[in-house]
Amino acid sequence: MNKMEEIIEKYKKYPITIGLILICIIVYVISVFIYGPSMDAQQGLHFGAYNPLFVFWNHDYYRLLTANFVHFGLLHIIVNCYSLYGLGIFVESVLKMKRYLIVIICSALATSGLPYLLYLFNGFEVNVVSGGISGVIFGIIGALGALAIVYKDVFLSIFKQLMPNVLAMLAISFLVPSISLSGHVAGLIGGFVSTYFILNKKKKNRYDDLLN
To answer: What share of the chain in percent tops pLDDT 70?
Structure first.
C-alpha cells in the first residue's frame, strides 16, 4: 500500500480528523505561495484570522470559523496537525462521525466566539490577531474530559495521563504572548460542554453503549 492509499484508507476511517488536517495543509500551502512560509498579523487577517474589531465593525463573522484553519508558520501547522491526528482519531472512533462533528464545530466556534463575547462585554483582547486549529485540539481534550466523567474506566485513565501535557500547554499559552490562552481555554470549554451534553442526552452509563 503506497502513501496515497494509506491516506485514503485513514480518511475513510476518520473522515473528520483527516479532513480537518487536509484543510489546514491546503490553506497553509496557499498562504506560502502568497506570503511565504510565515505570515505576519496583517497577512493573517487577509487570510481569515480572528480579530474582534474586524468581526464587530466589518461583520466578518466567518472569521469565527476560518481562523481555525489559518497557521502562521511551518512549526505552527506541524505541531497542530500532529496533535490533532493523535487525539482526533481516537475521539472520532469513540464518538462516531456525527457526534464528533458536533463537538468539532462547537469547539471551533467557541475558540473565537467566547473571546468575542468577552470583547463585546469589556473590550477583551481588542488588538489580538489569532489563528490555528489548536483551539479545536483543546476541544478534543475537553471531549476526553467529558468522556472520563461520564464513562470513567479507560477514558479516566487516558485523561489522567494527558493532564500534565494539558497543564503544560496552558502554561505555555500563558507565558508566550503570541499564543492565545483565551482561545485554548474557550476551545476546551466548547469541547467539554458539547460532549457532556451529547453523552447525557443519550442517558447511557456504559462504554459499550457508546460504541453502538
So the answer is: 85
DSSP assignments along 130-143, one per residue: B--THHHHHHHHHH
Interatomic CA distance for residues 153 and 173, integer angstroms = 30
Residue 42 grid cell: 496583517
Closest CA to 107 of 195, 211, 198: 195
Residue 2's pLDDT band, with cuts at 50, 70 and 90, is: low
| Among 190, 179, 49, 170, CA closest to 117 | 190
Residue identified by cell 477583551 is 124
Query: Looking at the DSSP assignment, which residues form a beta bridge with residue 50?
Result: 130
DSSP codes of every residue in 95-110: H-HHHHHHHHHHHHHH
Please answer whether residues 192 and 146 qualify as being in contact, where contact means their C-beta atoms are separated by less than 8 angstroms.
yes
178 vs 175: CA distance, rounded Å? 9
How many Cα neighbours within 13 Å face the side chain of 144? 24
- Count Cβ neighbours within 10 Å for each residue of 89-110 and write b for 16 or more, e otherwise: bebbebbeeebbeebbbbbbbb
Q: Is-contact 185 171, C-beta < 8 A? A: no
* pTM for the full predicted model: 0.88
Asked if 95 and 78 touch (Cβ cutoff 8 Å), the reply is: no
